[in-house]
Amino acid sequence: MNKVYVIGIGPGGACGMTAAARAALEEAEVICGYTVYLDLIAPLAPGKELRSTPMTRELDRCAMALELAGEGRTTALVCSGDAGVYGMASPLLELAAAYPAVEVEVIPGVTAALAGAAVLGAPLGHDFCTVSLSDLLTPWQVIEKRLRAAVAGDFVLCLYNPASHRRRDTLRRACGVLLEAGRAPGTPCGWVRNIGRGGQTSRLLTLAALQEEEVDMFTTVFVGASSTRAEGGRLITPRGYRT
Amino acid sequence: MNKVYVIGIGPGGACGMTAAARAALEEAEVICGYTVYLDLIAPLAPGKELRSTPMTRELDRCAMALELAGEGRTTALVCSGDAGVYGMASPLLELAAAYPAVEVEVIPGVTAALAGAAVLGAPLGHDFCTVSLSDLLTPWQVIEKRLRAAVAGDFVLCLYNPASHRRRDTLRRACGVLLEAGRAPGTPCGWVRNIGRGGQTSRLLTLAALQEEEVDMFTTVFVGASSTRAEGGRLITPRGYRT
What we know:
2 copies of one chain form a homodimer. Chain A is built from 8 helices and 13 strands. The first copy, chain A, is of the alpha/beta class. The longest helix of chain A has 13 residues, at about 60-70.
């Protein structure tokens, strides 16, 4: 059978990976991915053929995986976190229509929203949304519309891609939109950098302080809802049992 | 050390669990949880003391875990999916303030949004939000406000708790709100039942059809954004590479 597994390997090394992800890596003959992720999983996949493309060539990576599977080689395409959340599952499935003989199976993983939340406490204890602040693929107007809607809905926010090589002021702009839309300056927020990897760091702070914070592209940011509290060094959004 | 692990065991049995979750179960002397989840993990934790409370007694379960840890016994509190998303991490951390000698570590897992999305394809390929339709802990007005905000922000929606023992019309009501707020009746949607367990089933359908659908409490529901497409039996929300 011609098969591609699209695998979310979780936030860091082996310990964040599911047993299903491990099993799919075992089964694959060839493993494709961005170099950094291949380095993470290489110790778990001795003897496998590894194929990488540069970071920005996601479509090339998908096409490569589909080509290899089309040749009859069971193939894995790995991405960090979850395969479906800002991951490779969506572009791969879009291209897969051109490879009718190839079966695609998506293996989910722990995305940065969940792994980062666990580091900070339980900020995602109630309804939340994720917004990517990268305007490479999405116009800033759409991002801004979503930030405003998240405030209108009193959602907890998890922000992906709060900075890039190109832009350092993205988070500052986003916080400005949230404040203007009415989220309180004292709202408990937090960020986690290098989740599940060496040098993991995190910080709790208010939304006003977050606006002045310097973060990089390896950081995931959390903005509380009206019910979120900072308590004992943890960010907690109650499910409501106590009310 | 007095320690409680709050562990998300993922969507089903062992294969959806991370290595870190397995390791924490190994380390624990006592494992607390709702009976159904204890049954799922019992084969992985031979010889451990298992403690359960009925489904609705979440706070009792948290207090039990903290008491046991306070007595110096390393304790695990397990929940399905992720510990932080509508899970036990938030109520446990709220109670933990009263147990200053107990250290709490949250071990994240694959929540139903990610696991269900992988079954359907890649519906969460761009910004999304999760909304629980359970009005046990949240007034329906708040749920409705969030559904409307999700439409205003053109978010993909993942709906948890679309039905309960008590209420069967929750999903119908929610779809009515989404349609009234302007989400198109033809919007591609899907649901997955018993994710990662025996008897897993799923279906793709339009929002108009979803409004008429009978689902139960073991189902997770996905409502596409304006960019979501149904293609080759899969639900795909593009990241935007092709535009």
